[in-house]
Design a protein that fits this description.
Number of strands: 7
Number of helices: 9
Number of domains: 1
Bound molecules: zinc ion
CATH topology: L-fuculose-1-phosphate Aldolase
Structural class: alpha+beta
CATH superfamily: Class II aldolase/adducin N-terminal domain
Oligomer: single chain
Length: about 250
């Protein structure tokens, strides 16, 4: 009869590759300068196992080890873990349930992206840097109503993002970041590495948009043919940018 301890060991052993990735990507997020104190988190999902690996709540990045990474099931129940997960876990779970194509979620309060979120301003695609990663505007959600703030706030934060992406009729992987009104950005991707990259790029394009508007407040979004050109050469079946040798497969 397996003991509880041996079951925990088995689950964590099976999940080790994802746990290690989530630990590493949380450290990379901190090293990228996008996170002050503990204001950020990375999670990733094993859809076959129905388990999510996420940063624990309130643990400093400096002392974070793979053993601290928390596993939860799709309802948020802690599995084979000693610590409590990030308080944002219900938000991450709403996104995983709604968007089956995503494998990881990142949340930060990075300065420029958060400034746009606080101003409730979307980020129009003003240049090719954004067009390489986002198929158009980075949207902003509606503000949350009082009732939703009072109960199940974190899950309702996820609902706002899902509602916005669905209303725009976007494939979430073509729009891998969104600004939550009055709050901050969330990004996602097929993997944790890609989701963190999207979060880093989002902060850069928000900074560029801020500076562009400072130089010319009437700057218009790029032409749709330029957006198409830059996005499609990196994404989808017609992608050709980068190296494809040695089975790299997905050019970047
Ligand atoms: Zn937050």
């Amino acid at each position: 009869m397996p003991t509880r301890q041996s079951k925990v060991r088995d689950i964590r052993k099976y999940m080790k590759p994802l746990i290690d990735t989530v630990w590493r990507e949380n450290l990379r997020l901190k090293a990228s300068g996008l996170v002050t104190f503990t204001w950020g988190n990375v999670s990733a999902i094993d859809r076959e196992a129905g388990l999510v690996a996420i940063k624990p709540s309130g643990v400093d990045y400096e002392t974070l080890t793979p053993a601290d990474i928390v596993l939860t099931d799709m309802k948020g129940a802690i599995v084979a873990s000693a610590l409590k997960p990030s308080s944002d876990v219900p938000t991450h779970l709403v996104l995983y349930r709604a968007f089956p194509g995503i494998g990881a979620v990142v949340h930060t309060h990075a300065t420029y992206a958060t400034a746009f979120a606080q101003a409730c301003r979307p980020v129009p695609c003003l240049g090719t840097t954004q067009a390489d990663y986002f198929f158009g505007t980075v949207p902003v959600t509606d503000p949350m109503n009082r009732r939703d703030i009072r109960s199940e706030y974190e899950a309702h934060t996820g609902d706002l993002m899902v509602k916005k992406i669905r209303r725009l009729n976007m494939n979430p992987l073509d729009c891998p970041s969104i600004l939550v009104a009055n709050h901050a950005p969330f990004s996602w991707g097929p993997t944790a590495t890609k989701a963190v990259e999207n979060a880093i790029v989002l902060e850069e394009v928000c900074k560029m948009a801020w500076l562009t508007y400072a130089l010319n407040g009437k700057t218009k979004p790029v032409a749709s043919c330029l957006l198409e050109k830059h996005y499609r050469r990196k994404h989808g079946s017609g992608a050709y940018y980068g190296q494809t040798a040695r089975g790299a497969g997905n050019p970047k």
